[in-house]
Specification:
The protein is built from ten helices and 14 strands. It is an alpha+beta fold. The strands form four sheets. Strands 2-1-5-4-3 form a five-stranded antiparallel beta sheet. Strands 9-11-12-14-13 form a five-stranded mixed beta sheet, covered by helices on one side. Strands 6-7 form a two-stranded antiparallel ribbon. It is an enzyme of class 2 (transferase).
């Protein structure tokens, strides 16, 4: 009896081992198929053994879920690939060896290169971009100018490092700012035209109205009135009207002359100038301004012997305008402070700044203050800041403003690499 039981146990043990081996081989086959990306496998359902049938059913169900997941991933890849390819922003993906593993259509169009495979191809297009990308480092927005047969294209580029599957990648984003510059130029012209129209209409409308009144004194029904009918009172009114016309005409002439001033700035006669000396000069020139005695001045220069390559008269004019504006803004303030500062960063870029702790400039006004003839002053001409901006452009620099109302307003003059 015991022998019979032993045989049965042995038989069941062998059967169990074979069953487990078969199951393990089936599962191993399943995972090998998945690893080899083979989604065609299918395990039969017509198996007598219930456990094997349930196992086959489970494996088929898992395989189906994996197939659906792969299809979804593939669709998402195609979706994002289409977005990247059709985006108006150029995108380059570089690996650690400088190979371009992806470039979308916009990037190829902006760089005027149909097939981008390595950053070496960018060297003839833009030496600065090539040198920057060769470092394989993240960088903030940089301005790139690419010449072609008709004109230069202005682009901006920035990059970020990324580690993906233990591989160092650099994602570079390139944008064409030509359209943006065009839009800003159109908006500037629109604002200028609005200001010009407003000023001219303010001067011409009274002249037209008064002229019609004068004609009524001396013409009736299309004919001149007789001298005997002109009273002394009408003569006085006519003289007063003519004085008003003369006054309005003079204002219009001054307005026109201020516009001519904007268009007649000479080319800068640039020399190396000591920044401290310039600050001392403008400080003396504004010493007679109203309410200046109630304002404290501070000068900060680093390095101490900082020099700027610029036209002395033009830069002095810009600084004078900025300081006078600051003095005007502090007229009703007891603790007024103005700071003149100059600095040079590690890349050699130089900036001169005029800051004050006055009421500041509201965000809506920041977009308008550089428009010619726009002014918030009752007796202002509205050309000071637009003139300053034009002078900085002639120096190949820029003027910027940051303002936090009731805290601080800073006007900055930026010079490229310390040179105008």
């Amino acid at each position: 009896m015991s022998l019979y039981i032993a045989v049965i146990i042995l038989f069941q043990t062998v059967w169990l081992i074979r069953f487990l081996n078969k199951t393990n081989r089936k599962i191993a086959f399943f995972f090998n198929a998945i690893e080899n990306n083979d989604s065609t496998i299918n395990f039969p359902y017509d198996i007598k053994t219930r456990s094997i049938r349930e196992l086959n059913s489970s494996l088929n169900r898992v395989n189906k879920l994996l197939q659906e997941a792969k299809i979804n991933i593939k669709e998402q890849e195609q979706y994002y690939q289409t977005i990247l390819e059709e985006a108006e922003t150029g995108i380059l993906v570089l690996n650690g060896t400088g190979h371009i593993i992806h470039s979308n259509k916009t990037a190829r169009q902006l760089l005027n290169y149909p097939h981008l495979t390595h950053i070496q191809q960018l060297q003839p297009i833009s030496e600065s971009l090539f040198q920057t990308l060769q470092k394989q480092q993240s960088f903030d927005q940089k301005l790139i100018q690419i010449p072609n047969e008709r004109e230069s294209i202005h682009l901006t580029a920035k990059a970020r490092k990324l580690i993906l599957k233990e591989e160092n990648l650099l994602i570079v984003v390139i944008q064409n700012i030509h359209k943006e510059l065009d839009n800003q130029e159109v908006e500037s012209w629109q604002r200028l035209i609005r200001v010009l129209t407003h000023e001219i209409m303010n001067s011409v409308a009274p002249i037209t109205s008064i002229s019609e009144t004068l004609l009524g004194y001396f013409k009736k029904d299309g004919e001149l009135v007789k001298p005997a009918s002109i009273t002394q009172e009408k003569v006085k009114q006519a003289v007063k009207a003519l004085d008003t016309i003369n006054y309005q005409g003079s204002n219009l002439m001054k307005f026109t002359d201020s516009y001519r001033t904007l268009t007649k700035i000479p080319e800068p006669d640039k020399k190396l100038l000591n920044v401290r000396s310039i600050f001392e000069t403008v400080r003396i020139l504004v010493s007679q301004e109203d309410s200046v005695d109630r304002i404290s001045f501070k000068t900060t220069i680093a390095p101490k012997e900082l020099e700027v390559y610029a036209d002395e008269k033009l830069i002095t004019l810009v600084l004078l305008n900025l300081i006078k504006n600051a003095i005007h803004s502090l007229a009703d303030q007891d603790n007024g402070q103005i700071e003149l500062s100059g600095e040079k960063d590690e890349l050699g870029r130089l900036a001169l700044m005029v800051s004050d702790n006055g009421p500041g400039i509201s965000p809506c006004m920041l977009q308008k203050i550089f428009v010619p003839f726009f002014t918030t002053k009752k007796d202002g001409s509205g050309i000071g800041l637009s003139l300053s901006k034009h002078i900085m452009k002639l120096h190949h620099g820029s003027i910027e403003v940051k303002s936090k109302p009731q805290v601080k307003t800073i006007f900055s003059l930026h010079f490229q690499q310390g040179l105008g």
